[in-house]
Amino acid sequence: MGVLPEKRKLETSRPHGHPRSPPPSVSFPAEAQRRGREPIAQRLIVDPLPALRAPGMTCEVQADTKPQARLHSAMTFTLDSRLEADTIPVGDLALSSVLFLNDARFPWFVLVPRIAGASEFTDLSEADYAQLAQEIRIATKVMLELSKPDKVNVGALGNIVTQLHVHVIGRFRSDPAWPGPVWGHGTRTPYPDHAATALIERAAALFAAA
């Protein structure tokens, strides 16, 4: 699952509150970019809710037949300033921008579908919802490989930042919030500069290989 071909290289931010200096490139490799050029309609779209379907019930997910509409939405999309301030960009999947929360207490991805005005899952087309489900699976696999957590928590709240985004969080029995939720627990602790850079580079490589 590679970057969108027209997307420029993303830069790694310094932890919030630190001066910015020239960062290394974290764009995905050429092979992932090649895969990213495949039309959306040709990519595998899975049923995101197979366990909830009654016996005999089928789910037909329509392919994305309006790539221009998606492109227009992505062009008018703007990341919420609060998400931008608290995260470091990793790269772009077909639908979502991948961010890494700058909090050393918890390894934490944030997936933000680049759909202007979206705040609920029902604001997505069926094809985009299925694509998001696939990207959540990818982010979960990357988190398991990146941090080797005891459990991965996935959630979408949006009570404060209403822009649609999905949290993929690595949890450890030793973390300060275990076994409760991470939201509202203590004070965010930014990563040291070198640790943030290393994590972003590793995460970008894992996403490119997924």
Q: Helix tally? A: 5
CATH architecture designation: 2-Layer Sandwich
Total DSSP E strands:
5
Structural class: alpha+beta
The unreliable regions are 3-27, 29-54, 57-62
Question: What overall form do the CA principal axes indicate?
Answer: globular
Order of helices and strands: HHHEEEHEEH
Annotated CATH topology: HIT family, subunit A
Query: End-to-end distance, in Å?
Result: 6 Å
The top-level CATH class is Alpha Beta
Major sheet attributes = 5 strands, antiparallel
CATH H-level name... which superfamily? HIT-like
Give the strand line-up of the largest sheet.
1-2-3-5-4
Radius of gyration: 17 Å
Helix content: 25-40%
Mean pLDDT: 78
> How many domains comprise the coordinates?
1
